Model the fold of this input.
Amino acid sequence: MSRPPYGALTERCFDAIIDWSIELGLIITGSPHSQLRQRAALRRLDSRLRADVGVSRTEALRGRRDLTP
Done:
C-alpha cells in the first residue's frame, strides 16, 4: 500500500479540521443542523417511524448509511 503524497495528506487533515470546527460551532450554538443533534433525534424515533424515513436502527446509532446489499 503506497502512501499519498504529503500535500494530499495535509489537505485531508486540513479538511477534517475545518469540518470538526464547523460541527463544534453548530453544537455550541445549539443548531438543529448539527449532525449529533440529528442522530440523537433519529435514535429517539421508534422503529416504525425510522422505517418511514428509511433509516435502520444501526444506521441511526452509527450515523452513516449501511451500504451492505
